[in-house]
Amino acid sequence: MPDLAASDRARDRTHALFVVCVLAAASLVIAVLGAAPARVSARELLGETRTPGDAAFIASHRGGAATAPENTLPAITAALAGGFEYVEVDVALTADRQPVLLHDPTVDRTTDGHGRVSALSLAEVRGLDAGSWFDPAYAGTLVPTLDEFLDALAGAGGRGILELKGEWDAAALHDAIGRVVARQLESRVILASFDARTLALAAGASEVISRLLILKHVPDDVVQAVFEAGARGVVVSRKAVLARPEIVDELHAVDARVVVYTLNRDEHWDAVTALGVDGIVTDDPHTLSDWQSAYVGAD
After folding, report:
1. Which tens digit of pLDDT belongs to each residue from 51-83?
2. How far apart are CA 229 and CA 139, in angstroms?
3. What is the pTM of this model?
4. In this structure, what is the dihedral angle of CA atoms 49, 275, 89, 185, given to the nearest 10 degrees?
């Protein structure tokens, strides 16, 4: 039988080399142009690194999925109106390569339609009802476009964490980033992905817009993984960070941030706050905010 472990290691090395090469090429282009705006620091975008017991910033998951249909304008505007500066949404590409806010590979769960997002045109996706499944009061709610989300963000003065779903090529990333730049939101938008290659391609499209690497499992050298992705930090599962709590200090030591997803219970908030994580993604930002006020007040 072939040595699968050796094969995996070879693939990982090739992938890492590709990512580093793309990042190097992006840096060279920026150096040659000379006029590119400065990249936003992690401190400007995500605040100071937290210490154990500090309140983490709150990112409202899929706009605020506990109070309105996920990834819709009602959820997004409610979260921003409620004073929650960070809104996390999922961005997928339609068959005609238009960015829309949907989490799943298919539209079946969150609309009245059927089929894969990547097989439906923008017009077909926009013809779906994305609200009735949540509550009849939201009947007729549309799947938002990326433009609509960015307009809402610009109008409210908030910040957005955009998880890029599915496969993104350089052309799609250039197009999406162009929409961000057109609204002068480079300092208020973060691109996030499980795929380091996607983040590297994003770096080629804009060195200004910050990136976060999403991890379900933590690699042995998480600092190197963040470096290779050109990221400002990680968005990591609760189980992973509790299994390797030392990564919080390791990443803070290189001025990277640790954001944990998706926590909706006080015992989960307590566990990661005690580690000093920098951000918490939640479906219920109002309850988390109240919990943080009580937690900090108890000290």
Report:
1. 999 999 999 999 989 999 999 999 999 999 999
2. 40
3. 0.86
4. 0
